Amino acid sequence: MPLVRPFETSFGRQTVRDVLLVRLRTDVGDGWGECVAMADPFYSSEYVFGAEDVIRGYLAPALFAAGDVTAEQLSALFAPVVGHRMSKAVLEIAALDAELRAAGESFGLRFGAVRDSVDCGVSVGISPTIDALLDEVSGYVEKGYRRIKLKIKPGWDLEPVAAVRDLLGDAALLQVDANTAYTIADVEHLRELDRFGLLLIEQPFVEEDIRSHVALALAIETPVCLDESIVSTEVAIDAIERGATSVINIKAGRVGGYLEAVAIHDACLERNVPVWCGGMLETGIGRAANVALAALPGFTLPGDTSASDRYFEEDLTDPFVLRDGRLDVPTGPGSGVTVREELVHDFASRAPVELRE
Ligand code: SMG
Ligand code: MG
């Protein structure tokens, strides 16, 4: 699906979103899921074709062989497959969608939502120039976004952050995301971000490097927030206890599913660690589940849960529309959104792959 504008991060520039969708046919009805893996393994090791391959070769056969199972049992069923969390997550959410549609229960109710709409932020890519960046940010502010996140990398950090802080004023919520672009040698440089009153700095160092995040957290006043590093509840608790992260970006796909995401939320709530809902340029299908997740009590910071028009000219569901900086949590059964199947068909880069028992 073409993006309305290119999205550049420290690891690359995207102009389209190559989305792997799963439609799960069950004896209680169908469920849909959106896999958050990107086309290339640059954000994480997972990528679209890899996801398709592991679903086809391992996860779907395990599902078929298991017979009568519930969505809740899938993570144990898939445990023999190491990693591949985004692939596991899409099957789990498709199964949950089918189950909850049959039961007449919404994702929000199932996850434990406590609000009917959620505060939204927007993630702003690296721009060709500071002027272009300020234009883009101004547009989002006009639309009502409640928090701005700037993508940063070496050579694109202090100057753009200073310019945007100037534009927004001191009170505005502003944060940065490096997608692992820095090393421990950059600690002194990153400390200079302290003067901008940021909400947090997200994932400055590589995903396995918890130790350097601990060192940065000790050196800097800006709270350190992990994204890529947090792949499970155990890792989240460990990173919190070691002082590597004082805020967590929760992305269900990255942690193996929404049920694990809820567990991380619960662990963080218990430890007074604020969380927020990350984004992976989802269509309305994935967005519906993210918005439901972001309605849990521990999600106290605005998420990367932007409106459909931030990403796409046309969404695969009815568009999510920003209202006073917030998106409504769908209330219908399952995801609460209806997939526009003709549009999925029109956008499809190839015919659907059908897997059977
Ligand atoms: O969905 O609005 C969105 C994108 C939010 O910045 C975003 N995601 O590291 O948090 C992150 C990135 C990962 C995806 S980059 C293509
Ligand atoms: Mg991130």
Sequence of strands across the biggest β-sheet: 6-7-8-9-10-11-12
CATH topology title of the largest domain: TIM Barrel
Residue share in helix: 25-40%
Provide the β-strand percentage band.
Answer: 15-25%
* Basic shape: globular
The CATH architecture of the largest domain can be given as Alpha-Beta Barrel
What is this structure's SSE topology?
Layout lengths: L1 E8 L2 E5 L3 E7 L2 E7 L12 H19 L7 H5 L6 H19 L3 H5 L5 E3 L1 E4 L5 H14 L3 E5 L6 H11 L5 E4 L9 H5 L9 E2 L7 H10 L4 E3 L6 H9 L5 E4 L1 H4 L2 H13 L4 E3 L6 H10 L32 E3 L12 H7 L10
Parallel strand pairs: 6-7, 7-8, 8-9, 9-10, 10-11, 11-12
Antiparallel strand pairs: 1-2, 3-4, 5-13
Helix pairs in contact: 1-3, 5-6
Task: Give an account of the 3D structure.
A seven-stranded parallel sheet has the order 6-7-8-9-10-11-12. It has a two-stranded antiparallel ribbon with strand order 1-2. It has helices spanning 48-66, 74-78, 85-103, 107-111, 130-143, 158-168, 187-191, 210-219, 233-241, 252-255, 258-270, 284-293, 341-347, and strands spanning 2-9, 12-16, 20-26, 29-35, 117-119, 121-124, 147-151, 174-177, 201-202, 224-226, 247-250, 275-277, 326-328. Helix 8 (210-219) links the parallel strand 9 and strand 10 (224-226). Helix 5 runs parallel beside helix 6 (158-168). It has 13 helices and 13 strands. The protein has 357 residues and is of the alpha/beta class. The mean pLDDT is 98. The protein starts with a strand and ends in a 10-residue tail after the last helix. The chain is globular. The protein has two domains: 2-104, Enolase-like, domain 1, CATH 3.30.390; 110-328, Enolase-like C-terminal domain (TIM Barrel), CATH 3.20.20.120. Helix content is 37%, strand content 16%. The protein binds N-succinyl methionine and magnesium ion. Magnesium ion binds at residues 177, 179, 202-203, 227, 249, 278.
